[in-house]
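re: ur question from earlier - yeah i can do the single chain one, its not a big deal. heres the input i used so u can compare w yours
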Amino acid sequence: MKKLMLSFVIISCLFAFSVEAAFHLHVVAPNGGETYKVGSTMKIRWECTSAKAKGKIFLILGSGKTVSHITDFGLMPGQPMQHEFQWKIPNDVAGNTKYKIMIRIDYGKSTVVDLSNNVFTIKELPTVSGSLYMDVSDRFAKIKVLSPNGGETLYKGETYRVEWETENDIGHPTIYIREGGSMVYSIHDVVPISLGGNRYRYNWAVPDDISNGSEYFLRIASGETKPGMDESDNDFTITNQKITVTQPTEGVTVHRGTSLIIRFRAENITENLMIWVDGLDPRYNFIVDNLPPTTRSYTWVDVPIVGDGVIPGGDALRIVVSTMDRKISGKSGYIRLVD
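and the output i got, formated as tokens:
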């Protein structure tokens, strides 16, 4: 009887382990070494198995003490493995160099947890007296970067407006591009174009020799004797990978029962593509996947029909062509789906 009971316990433990191992969860970012400021936006990224489950995100200390319950989220089958939540760090979060992100997911009767591999830093905003602030403002030029200020995607070879505002004469400033902790590009003696008031711009053609990346910041530094600088509040992306949807165009009306020709092109992309509809319930928005990146068009037959159901109508829908992980995508203009 003891041998039978021992065997049952071992089998139960192995079964529980196999269920646990079957669910994949991995905190991607922040994963250690990063520095954030109170009031800035932290991109929390993770990978997990596609399943019906509920999850929670926490800010914790390296010791394991929970500091803040950041948010709840839900999972459904069919979703991609990559997920992201943008968290604006509240002003009441204390500065500390030993923070981690913890994600907990409950599915069925099981729970999985993953943490940042190493600690990261959150810095508090400095508090200064009125007199000290006046001294600092008198000694340093006030500059505020307006664009790119975080979240944008800039494509190599294309020209974008770098915009800023300043209350001081900063002459011909220098523009720096930072990737992570390294300065990778600079433009000296920039001749600003006035937009009226305190706003200025510079037309910047993104060079082809910058590496693809999603952790870029732009810095503007004064070119006059009064020093001063400012950076983008959050990171932005520079890439030569691009998906452009050329059809359907803005304002097209699509009737139920008809077919829709979708035209697009993928540049410098080697992954397979998928097509879906932005603005529809996720249960109905899938069109097709695993298209080769050389595909240039796809005909969506019987547009409103999905299995045995019918797609709800709408007048704010967009066709999206993306990589399978949805990290790179292009959208059509807004279309209408009607009877």
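Residues 242-338 form a domain with the Immunoglobulin-like fold (CATH 2.60.40.10). not sure if urs matches, ping me
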